[in-house]
Amino acid sequence: MTTPVADPLIVASVPGRHVYVRHLAAEVEERVTRLPDPDPDDPRRPAQQTWWPPVMLDPDWIAREHFDVFHLQFGFDAWSPEGLQTVVDALRRKGTPIVYTVHDLRNPHHEDRTLHDAQLDVLVPAADALVTLTEGAAEEITMRWGRTAHVVPHPHVVDLATMARVALRGERSRRRGPRIGLHVKSLRASMNPLELLSTILAFVSATPHAVLQVNGHRDVLEPDGARYDAHLARQLRLAADRGLVDLHVHDFMTDAELYAYLASLDVSVLPYRFGTHSGWLEACRDVGTTVVAPDCGYYADQAPVFSYRNDGIGFDGSSLRAALEDAVAHPGWGAATVAERRAQRARIADFHADLYASLVR
């Protein structure tokens, strides 16, 4: 007798198109169907590129659509706690279980943590199940709210085919010296790369054939940019003019351009003053780039990194220098292989499918 195959559970993932959410699913998914993000301009059709603001957070959308589980990941940065409570209430009226993955215990986009703390005070107690990425974050969740979160590691960020191509090329092994990256992109509130610059420059100057590459977006480093930082731009251009920095100013990178850039580095320095977890860190692991990360948040809990002191209160340049020395001496530290990421992804997909099923029984 053949056992009937259960219909896949329908999950509203907020958002569905984010790379993290896409890689929660097995490469061939049979147990879970995730709804496509509705187009913000026309919620009747799936979004093509833009998923923000997430239509799935609209209580009216929640009331009229069919799904078995609501899984919140990102996208509520600008929501008031009262607005989030209306989302919770709409789901409660339907009897739909809520899963919340706590990526950020401190929002990297907010200098003032008050709003995010208030948002978490709504979401964490309301969730039927909580997931987070590290043991450290889970301990903080227990300490702050008395809740237990499942700890599930971050899946790969770079697609597996690109990972395989990077592993085959092996370009870094042919260099005379290390290339260290300090990326300033569109500066988040949590970033302060200028504070690190003199220490990294001193290290590079003392390290034979070392290069410091700084990439930044035009909106930060050019005068007509919406987020122009005149002091940072001036210091970087002065260093570039003296031959101390390989400065690249550009528009937003595509995923392919970003992964190629990360793969071109031996070391990537994360210039954060606060935060919790990092997708950038995972992308570096995918392409074999060693990461130097601050000791704020749970970056060292998330994956193998070399840590320096920068906790939002004090920055210690000597610890950054020591971390750079270790990073240069350990190329590919923490790198993940395609086989490891594929197996990890299968485990993560199984975990989520089991969790969803446990909530709708």
TrEMBL record:
It comes from the Bacteria. Keywords: Glycosyltransferase, Transferase. Pfam families: Glyco_transf_4 (PF13439). Residues 19-154 form the Glycosyltransferase subfamily 4-like N-terminal domain. This is Glycosyltransferase. It comes from Nocardioides hwasunensis.
